[in-house]
């Protein structure tokens, strides 16, 4: 009977985990970056080379080489950087860092599975299910938004193909004649695959990190619930429960700090890239209003709006989870103070000071290269900075 119960519990845990990150796992395995231990003799460790080389050969290298050749034309430079180059550079950094951190991230996934297996209360499990539901909705929404921007750009290029000298998806330098068949078809197909790969990596890494941080926030919420009930334990179980709470708090801190240490450099690249992307995309939108091809203007504005919104949403995700993580972390000290500690023996009540001091002195945070915290305030500062750069670009063009 006990074996059957354990088997059913395992099935439930796997079902909950699949519900939480099935989308990320499916897409990341296609890209070869799903967290696992990397070994030279493991074929799955080399799957990442296919999307990596596709993006490198058909998007990043041709556009980077082409950049000095178009330096005299501000509009072409802006298009080069905003449409593909910066996005691909960010996707590259994400793929490399995520692939290199595979073993550490796999350990985090094991910690998540352990949290699902050891949750003790129905309220705690319900809270974790709510967090999983939020993570799943965020994943589906962000991935769909990024793919929608891709589709919109593809349709935009098809609309412009007759009125534009460039028949490819992106301007770029290729060491062969792309105007003849089958070179043209192969190049367009390669660029399309590169767009899909870059979009997949760009969006799934962001939603995966969001899932990890939201899970940590859920564990902190469960910890606060345990603190509020600390007075209800008898003397025999009180020390054991206090020990579990302190250990759980330290465990969640280490979980969050692992995420921060793995990705703070990548997040710095993303934040700086997002500022430039928002600046250039908005500048392109302003320029499209002045174009003579008014019949195509609506298509370009739709794409630019989708693209800009997707960049803003991805950045907003980090600012939201960073704000929530810091808030949940510092709330631990408030919860410890607001619980009925005065009902505890003085010797036991003093143990809560360890948790309170840890929460106040070193709150959990998500940073961009250790330079700044991701908060809603940072998000507003990024938008203001991008707006300032837009005015500079407009003045230079004028």
From TrEMBL:
Q: Which GO MF terms are attached to this record? A: odorant binding; olfactory receptor activity
Q: Which residues cross the membrane?
A: 46-65, 77-100, 138-160, 192-214, 263-286, 298-321
Location of the protein in the cell: Cell membrane
Q: How does it sit in the membrane?
A: Multi-pass membrane protein
- Any GO CC annotation of this UniProt entry: plasma membrane
Recorded superkingdom? Eukaryota
Any single biological process term in GO = signal transduction
The record's principal subcellular location, in a coarse class, is membrane
The record's InterPro entries line, in alphabetical order, gives:
7tm6_olfct_rcpt
- What keywords appear on the UniProt entry? Cell membrane, Membrane, Olfaction, Receptor, Sensory transduction, Transducer, Transmembrane, Transmembrane helix
A Pfam family this chain is assigned to: 7tm_6
Instruction: Name the protein family.
Output: Belongs to the insect chemoreceptor superfamily. Heteromeric odorant receptor channel (TC 1.A.69) family.
The protein's name is Odorant receptor
Q: Which organism is it from?
A: Tetragonisca angustula
């Amino acid at each position: 009977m006990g074996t059957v119960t354990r088997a059913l519990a395992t099935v439930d845990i796997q079902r909950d985990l699949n519900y939480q990150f099935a989308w990320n796992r499916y897409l990341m395995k296609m890209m070869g970056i799903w967290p696992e231990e990397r070994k030279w003799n493991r074929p799955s460790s080399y799957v990442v080379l296919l999307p990596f080389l596709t993006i490198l050969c058909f998007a990043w290298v041709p556009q980077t080489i082409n950049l000095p050749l178009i330096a005299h034309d501000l509009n072409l430079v802006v298009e080069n950087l905003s449409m593909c180059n910066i996005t691909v550079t960010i996707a590259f950094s994400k793929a490399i860092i995520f692939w290199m951190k595979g073993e550490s991230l796999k350990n985090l996934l094991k910690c998540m599975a352990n949290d699902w297996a050891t949750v003790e209360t129905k309220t705690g499990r319900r809270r974790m299910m709510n967090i999983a539901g939020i993570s799943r909705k965020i994943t589906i929404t962000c991935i769909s938004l990024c793919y929608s921007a891709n589709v919109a750009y593809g349709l935009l290029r098809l609309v412009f193909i007759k009125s534009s000298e460039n028949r490819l998806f992106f301007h770029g330098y290729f060491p062969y004649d792309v105007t003849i068949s089958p070179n043209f078809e192969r190049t367009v197909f390669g660029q399309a695959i590169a767009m899909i790969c870059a979009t997949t990596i760009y969006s799934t890494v962001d939603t995966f990190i969001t899932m990890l941080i939201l899970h940590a926030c859920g564990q902190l919420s469960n910890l606060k619930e345990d603190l509020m009930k600390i007075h209800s334990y008898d003397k025999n179980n009180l020390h054991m429960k206090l020990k579990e709470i302190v250990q759980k708090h330290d465990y969640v801190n280490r979980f969050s700090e692992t995420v921060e240490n793995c990705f703070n450099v990548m997040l710095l690249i993303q934040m700086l890239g997002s500022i430039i992307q928002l600046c250039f995309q908005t500048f392109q939108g302003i320029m499209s209003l002045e174009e003579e091809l008014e019949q195509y203007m609506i298509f370009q504005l739709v794409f630019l709006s989708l693209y800009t919104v997707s960049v803003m949403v991805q950045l907003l995700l980090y600012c939201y989870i960073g704000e929530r993580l810091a808030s949940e972390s510092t709330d631990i000290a408030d919860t410890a103070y607001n619980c009925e500690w005065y009902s505890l023996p003085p010797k036991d009540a003093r143990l809560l000071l360890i948790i309170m001091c840890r929460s106040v002195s070193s709150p959990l945070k998500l940073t961009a290269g250790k330079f700044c915290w991701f908060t809603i305030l940072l998000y507003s500062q990024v938008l203001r900075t991008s707006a300032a750069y837009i005015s500079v670009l407009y003045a230079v063009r004028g």
